[in-house]
Amino acid sequence: MVFRIRRLAMASVAVASATTLVAGCASGSGGSTSGADGNTLTLWTHNAGNSAELDVVKKIIKDFNGSQDKYEVKLQAFPQTDYNSSVVAAASARKLPCLLDVDGPNVANWAWGGYLDPIDVSGSEVPLTDQLESTVGRYKDKLYAFGFYDVSLAFFSRKSVLNAYDIRIPTMDKPWTKAEFDAALAKLKKSGKFDYPLEMGTGGTGEWWSYGYSPQLQSFGGDLIDRGDHKSASGTLDGKNSVEWGKWFSSLAAKGYIAKKSAADPNPDFLAGKSAIHWDGSWNAAKNADKFGDDLAILPPVDFGDGPKIGGASWQWAMSSSCSNKEGAQAWLKFSRQNKYFVDYAKATGTLPATEAASQQVEGYEPGGKFNVLVRFAREYAQVRPVTPAYPYISTEFEKAAKDLLAGADPEEALGQAAKNIDNNLKTNDYYSG
Amino acid sequence: MAAFLKRLGGQGARIVLALVFVLPLVFMVVSSFKPDDQIFGDLDSLRAFLPLGDVSLDNYTGVFERVPAARFLLNSVLISTITVVLGIIVNSLAAFALSRMRWPGRKLVLTAVIATLIVPFETFALPLVWWVNQLPLLRANGFQLEWTTGWMDTYQVQILPFVANAFSIFFFHQYFRSIPKELDEAAIVDGAGWFTIYRRIVMPLSAPAVATVAILTFLPAWNSYLWPLMVVQSEELRPVMVGISYFFQLNVGWGQIMAYSSMITVPILALFVAFQRAFVSSIASTGVKG
What we know:
The structure holds 2 protein chains of 2 kinds.
Chain A: H1 2-21, E1 36-37, E2 40-45, H2 51-67, E3 72-77, H3 83-92, E4 99-103, H4 107-112, E5 116-117, E6 136-139, E7 142-146, E8 149-150, E9 153-158, H5 159-164, H6 178-191, E10 196-199, H7 208-219, H8 240-254, H9 267-271, E11 275-281, H10 285-292, E12 296-299, E13 310-312, E14 315-320, H11 326-336, H12 339-349, E15 352-353, H13 356-361, H14 372-381, E16 382-384, H15 391-406, H16 411-428
Parallel strand pairs in A: 2-3, 2-4, 10-11, 13-16
Antiparallel strand pairs in A: 1-2, 4-14, 5-14, 6-7, 7-14, 8-15, 9-11, 9-12
Chain B: H1 2-31, H2 36-41, H3 58-66, H4 69-100, H5 106-115, H6 121-132, E1 136-141, E2 144-149, H7 156-159, H8 166-177, H9 182-189, H10 194-202, H11 207-223, H12 226-231, H13 240-244, H14 254-286
Antiparallel strand pairs in B: 1-2
């Protein structure tokens, strides 16, 4: 009897343990290459659910597969929200596809992490030199990625609203100064006509915080890190100019000019007239124009002292280092660099074409077009986020500090802590050398 | 009079509490029939909870155009159901061994099982990805079966790591302890073995515990998001929760999100309503709150 008890007991617990450990106890090793089965290459994109952009990717794949009979590219689309998690998990399992898209600011990190290999697109229809610099992903002087489009940031407002409150409509020749902007917000707040005079999208998450607000920090003369050697944030992120930005940013919430946390998608509030001015991306330009027509004002960023600034770099295409068919991957990348695809992407997504030639062919973005000003912002004001493998960490720390500022934290302390954390991370990772 | 007022106050508090829980669901379902403009327009009034205005099934049509919703639903039903069935068998067997049998080290094993409850999944998710990618896999290649390595992008990688569950073992263990051991002894006298006792006596008397474990296993399996995102690349293998992030792209369709959310909430509600009575009674009898 004792034997039977033991046997069943051990068997029962063993079944549970085995099932728990089933993900862990077998031996073997994953392959060192992936992403292709012979000449069939896998391609990942962040566009699941975004049919506009996904359709262009599908079209390029279809055209490529039809243009030759050596290689075949197969698509796997992921939702954008956690696309990076999927890539990081696949990289740890050595299961990356051959071709994948990557958000511009992450190129350096993924290249440093060994996820990506340098690419060579010489001889393709559109030369690299024709592209907006922010659409080219380089790290340590090597080309790792390129994009078909960029996005631009702008203040969106209504001419009728600005005129009603006697607020000057700024131009690229004469953008708003800090004093003018603050005075405009005070007037709009005093009117009591808006839930908040300014919509900054503070309900956004992740990269939006660095993309949306670090250009304003830079316009104050501050920055996320010392770009000289990318080895320290102390003295820069918590320097005098950055602290000034912190005080101003914090005051926006304290004075009730912006919501401490706006809606996840604040554009409907702007369209409904709940806010007077909206700091937003070019991706909503067409929607705003549809609603307000000629009354829509697309305004340049404020010059806080160091010139108007916006962020640069959007999604780009790259090749994984573990790709088992790099020749095929390079062939697809080169094939895709045709002017018509630069045009298709911009038309489908409402983004800024990466080349001047494509801009001429996209309605609204051609010289004199109603959205051409966004292209000019990108050309004249765009500053890429620091090109360092530490960027994802820097971005996370900046997001935390900026959220603390809106919650009322002391700017010197919040930015000082972020700078200290970034420096520690750099030191821990041996300044991302290698 | 005082008793009446007390009862009235109690009823009022219950109604308020019920509204707090029900209104978000009502808002979700009602909004699923409205266009985005109207959803935001109605937010300032009670109309947000009423199916008034431009009401249609457009959002539901849109969901099926934007996402392979039927496939995702089918996958989630399959993954959650198998996880629940295997989970009930495996965890109840383990709990039976730990609670009804006397063998050296069982207290230590139980302690070790309970100790794993404090480790959050996120802390070992990435190492787990690495491990599952080392496992041998028998795969069909045409008419031949061949051994390969790595469970990535399969159904089993979404099921098997979640079958054995420390909370379920502990829950069954607590419930089994409330069943008189005299029943075991009587059965043994009649010649029953341990497996017969487990199958014929303990499990039939543990229906409330089974129902509770079924619900508590089904919920996380149904809500699974991070894990499938990391280990599943093919769209045809994805579960419903990954599907919801398809809508958070440049053009967020709030009405479609509400429609999709309504569709994926219905099975959960149905399950809870079906097992509600057993759920409450087993929670009360074990003194365990999930």
